[in-house]
Amino acid sequence: MILSDRERETATALADLTLVNPFMPERVEAERRALGDRFVEHQQVWHIQLEGGEAANPNLPLLTAEAQSLAEVLRERLAKVRRVGKAEAQIYRDLVVYALYRRYQQQLHGPMRDELKGGGNGPLPFYRNFAGDLERFFAPAALAGKVDLPDPAHLFACFFQVRRAFHHIHRFLVGGSMPAARQRAAVWESIFSHDMRRYRRILFRHMGDVTTLITGPSGTGKELVARAIGLSRYLPFNPHKKTFQASFDESFFPLNLSALSLALIESELFGHRRGSFTGAVEDRAGWLEVCPVHGTVFLDEIGEIDSGLQVKLLRVLENRSFQRLGETQERRFEGKVIAATNRDLGEEMKAGRFREDLFYRLCADSIQTPSLAERLEDSPQELGVLVRHLTRQMVGESEVEELSVEVLHWVNDHLSPGGKYRWPGNVRELGQCIRNVLIRRSYHPPAPAEAQASGAAEQLSQQMLEGALTANELLSGYTTLVYAQAGSFQEVARRLKVDRRTVKARIDGELLELLRGGW
Fold first, then answer.
1. Distance from CA of residue 394 to its chain's centroid?
2. Cα 234 from Cα 232, distance rounded (Å)
3. Which alpha helices (H) appear in 81-195, and where do they start and end?
4. CA 477 – CA 463 distance, rounded (Å)
5. Nearest residue to 165 via CA among 144, 185, 191
6. Which residues pair with 237 in a beta bridge?
7. How far apart are CA 103 and CA 136, in angstroms?
8. How far apart are CA 12 and CA 3, in angstroms?
9. CB neighbours (10 Å) of residue 111?
10. Distance (Å, rounded) from C-alpha 345 to C-alpha 351?
11. How far, rounded to the nearest angstrom, does the alpha carbon of residue 284 sit from its chain's CA centroid?
């Protein structure tokens, strides 16, 4: 035995801080157990502060000092005993991991900040000190067969990944409501799984094989969730060069599938050979080919693609293989896929518009983004947090307070007295509201989508009855109406018994935007 009862309780709680999801209540409970009467009550939801930057936790200095002091005491005891139990060895290992992370987290912030500013991925001389500290804590015990010595380069890489994950989750996922907190917790698990020990042992090699599907209403920040995950992936560290083997800031490749034609989607995704289609004047590598092994391809609006492309994506997810357009050569995709949609894929599968086999390949890891209305219902003060955050991005620090006050006054006085406005456009609409107040000192939301859709359909019907449409207008209007219901070019082509390219040529984009609100 190397631990007294009280030391065991404290050390176990500190060790748990390396294992629990930091965005869930378990973290607060572990801090409370570790510090006892010295624990300082603070916000239960860990999120970005109104004044910017990551939230300050008043307990962290106390926890750091406690962990480092106890780790030193136990290191000296381990050198003097012949045997140590498996449970105590594990507690010691996790305790030292926590103490070393706290010791080096500020230094790890430096290379992350430099890379975000375009400074590149340079050597990190302080790795030598880290490896020396790790050996000092583990080598004597490891030589005696009491505790395994962790691989320094791997643990250093894990520490850098944890530091980046905290940064990107705080940076992209703002808000103090419980729905926002649950979203951050879900993103943490998408990066590390629920078992941090298993992740450090083996899963760091395999999380890229798991596709993440992000669902939720439009305007809720699905791409921000994808970026937080993609920019926080594991990067191996080369201990000889003292550099990471890849740059995290150049490893995220987003593609909006609804914004491009099928040919352009396939070219962007798979690449093409010269002459494979009109305009293909040279060979080109697609993002599946360019994406490195630790990179991420983000497929936004996955619910919009037709069955042919669904088959090709299924092959990529199942076999990790693909071909450039116009080629037969098999190529390998080594990165991670994240997909997003605001559609109900269950309903899409029932309607025959989305393949079940592709869905089950996509949904191994799923995250649901909450609506702004859900967040404000849980925490009305969330509106002020988001307004200040978005305002800071638009006008900078010097104008944050003045513009934020203007926006909040307008919302409370004119748009949402009593906080009853539901924000159908979610955070994206809130951003538009801020811009309108900035420019015109007011914001008037558009008519509800259902009313717009109903009005557009009635107007189209009336024009048909009055014989006021040309043949081309009639065909375009009816094709657009059917597409708003069916949701895919292929299904419309089947119903109207025409070629899908004809369907696409007849779609009236402006009418479609109005009609889509009703289905």
1. 22
2. 7
3. 86-116, 127-143, 152-172, 178-192
4. 10
5. 191
6. 244
7. 14
8. 10
9. 22
10. 10
11. 28
What lies within 8 Å, CB to CB, of 303 at 6+ separation is 341, 342, 343, 345, 348, 354, 487
Q: How far apart are CA 273 and CA 326, in angstroms?
A: 5
**CA–CA gap between residue 20 and residue 32 (Å, rounded):** 14
d(CA 191, CA 325): 32
Beta-carbon contacts of 249 under 8 Å, excluding residues fewer than 6 positions away, are 115, 116, 231
Task: Map tokens 């069955």 to a residue.
Answer: 307
In order, the DSSP letters of 364-397 are: TEEEEPPPHHHHHHH-TTHHHHHHHHHHHHHH-G
Which residues, including other chains, have CB under 8 Å from residue 74's CB and lie 6 or more apart? 2, 3, 7, 11, 92, 95
Q: pLDDT truncated to tens, each residue of the chain (519 aa)?
A: 578 899 999 999 999 999 999 999 899 999 999 999 999 987 767 665 434 444 568 899 999 999 999 999 998 888 887 777 888 888 999 999 999 999 999 999 988 888 887 767 789 999 999 999 999 998 866 655 667 788 999 999 999 999 999 999 999 999 989 999 999 999 999 999 999 999 999 999 999 999 999 999 999 999 999 999 999 999 999 999 999 988 888 899 999 988 888 888 888 899 988 877 777 778 889 999 999 999 999 999 999 898 899 999 999 999 999 999 888 899 999 999 999 999 999 999 998 999 999 999 999 999 999 999 999 999 999 999 999 999 999 999 999 999 999 999 999 999 888 888 999 999 999 999 999 999 999 998 876 555 455 566 777 777 788 788 888 888 998 998 888 877 777 778 888 888 877 888 888 877 877 676 544
**127: which residues sit within 8 A by CB, 6+ positions away?**
152, 156, 237, 239, 242
Beta carbons within 8 Å of 125's beta carbon, 6+ residues apart: 242
Distance (Å, whole) CA 357 – CA 302: 14
Radius of gyration of the CA atoms of the chain, in A: 27
Three-state DSSP at 448 gives coil
Contacts of residue 66, Cβ cutoff 8 Å, sequence gap at least 6: 10, 14, 34, 35
**Closest by Cα among 513, 508, 510 to 470:** 508
423 phi, psi to nearest 5 deg: 50, 65
Give the DSSP H or E segment for 345. Answer: helix 345-350
Q: Where are the beta strands (DSSP E) in 174-322?
A: 212-215, 237-238, 243-244, 252-256, 271-272, 284-285, 296-300, 321-322
